[in-house]
Amino acid sequence: MPRIRCHYTDCIFLDEGYCSAAAVEIDPDTGCVTYSPNEESMENDDWEDDLDEWEDEELEEEDWLDEEEEEEL
After folding, report:
1. Could you tell me where the DSSP H helices lie in 1-73?
2. What pTM was estimated for this model as a whole?
């Protein structure tokens, strides 16, 4: 039986890095259709806060790049 290495860290079918689902459906555009996040990861869903921090850092970096370009001129 083939084993499928899974890169999701919060899937309910994850078993020591491999998918343990009886059947797996893969969509070429969206990836694993069988993926189901476990309840624990859904409770700790702070990704929106992380995204806000990342966007703030990205804006600061863009400002820095603009200043560097002005200095070159």
Report:
1. 39-43, 47-72
2. 0.50
Burial environment of residue 29 by CB neighbours within 10 A (0 to 12, 13 to 18, 19 or more)? exposed
Q: Are 10 and 38 in contact (CB under 8 A)?
A: yes
Domain range annotation of the chain: 1-37, 45-73
- In sequence order, the 6+-apart residues with CB closer than 8 A to the CB of 59 are none
Tokens for 34? 């069988």
Work out the number of other CB atoms within 10 angstroms of the CB of residue 30: 8
The three-point CA angle 31-18-32 to 5° equals 10
pLDDT 10s digits, 35-55: 999 877 655 555 556 666 666
